[in-house]
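Crash report, auto-generated. Payload:
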Amino acid sequence: KQEVTQIPAALSVPEGENLVLNCSFTDSAIYNLQWFRQDPGKGLTSLLLIQSSQREQTSGRLNASLDKSSGRSTLYIAASQPGDSATYLCAVRGAGGTSYGKLTFGQGTILTVHP
Amino acid sequence: DAGVIQSPRHEVTEMGQEVTLRCKPISGHDYLFWYRQTMMRGLELLIYFNNNVPIDDSGMPEDRFSAKMPNASFSTLKIQPSEPRDSAVYFCASSFPGTGFGRNTEAFFGQGTRLTVV
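Recovered output after restart:
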């Protein structure tokens, strides 16, 4: 059974810092890994998707890396801003066995960026 | 495309009543997922469909929950009878298969239905 863990559970930083959020997964048989953002009381917004054959993806100040063999991904946020405050979730798409096609989430990292 | 559309956005019902949540996936997507989100348990996958067929319903908490996908453009999640512990936000998501075949394999979420059972 695929299990996804995110560290840290919460993070509070001053504006301008560069941040690293971590995601690990137990089953390396995945199609892709996706990072989402969720604002309080809102739905999930997709930030980045990394296919299993890729090592990283970039969008603006966000950079996500994937090491499938070791079951790890990191989301790097450069020059953080108060508007980045949200919960960040990672999810993996299973490619084998009982997890085929399944989208499994971690518990999320609650990020607070204060001015 | 308008994205994944869920209805209603909010539902308040009395314990014991039947509740039906609705989802319209993005046109052309083969996969549809139902999740429940609470503060205590985070995002839990309840059930997911591929080409309208349920693939894994092991996350459905008990027999009071049922889900159907009668066609490619509509799915329902029903709770009968509802209980206060069912209060949560229910999300629907859709995507192409993970293999992609050259298509964008991102999963897209609806805005959710906030269910309160009193």
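Post-recovery validation: The longest strand of chain A covers residues 30-38.
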